[in-house]
Amino acid sequence: MIQLGRPKTAEGCLSMRIGAIVLLCFLPSKGGYSTDATRPLVVDCGVEALYLAIASLGNNETLDGFASRLPSPGPNGHSLTDLARFAKDRGFHVRLVDTSCNNLTERSANESFACIAWIAPNHFVNIAECVEHQVTVVDFPNRRTMPISLFRKDWNGEALLISTDELASEASLSAKLCAKHCFKYLILLGLAGAVAWAGRVMHARFRKVI
Fold first, then answer.
1. Is 182 in a helix, a strand, or coil?
2. CA pair distance 208, 210, nearest whole angstrom
């Protein structure tokens, strides 16, 4: 399953449930998000996305504590590769992929993982769910559900997958999807052939009766 939960706000405090974890982060009027309202902390959007991702997988650090242990981002912020390295350094399995919502849905049937999507020119969001033609993303601290077609206008498929277990390669996943679609196509082709054969038999019998 894709790991992430639904954010709720109340009295200036964000309570985000991610799996069985509740994260409490004060929202100061300036300076970003901090667990200490008297000491605002400016946090890179990539760090926020990574924090939510690994929190959903069992990390219990505060946002302040987590961010303070990471190198300062460059002028353009952290890259997806940087986030992958940070997660790997904490013992998580990571995989940088060029993927799609269909592949994420297929993967979630057998794997539990968090997904960080890179949005041009340099922004990161967490993909929480892909259901039919809808995708739900968390752009901390907001959560939005939108048509996949709309999301794909900004997302080219680049993503970071993070898990406590090994992650299958995108190539093996694509091959599995292709095999599944080919099998469905063969079934439909067989059904169409059976219907055509039955039609010819009925037509021949009808002509004999006449």
1. helix
2. 5
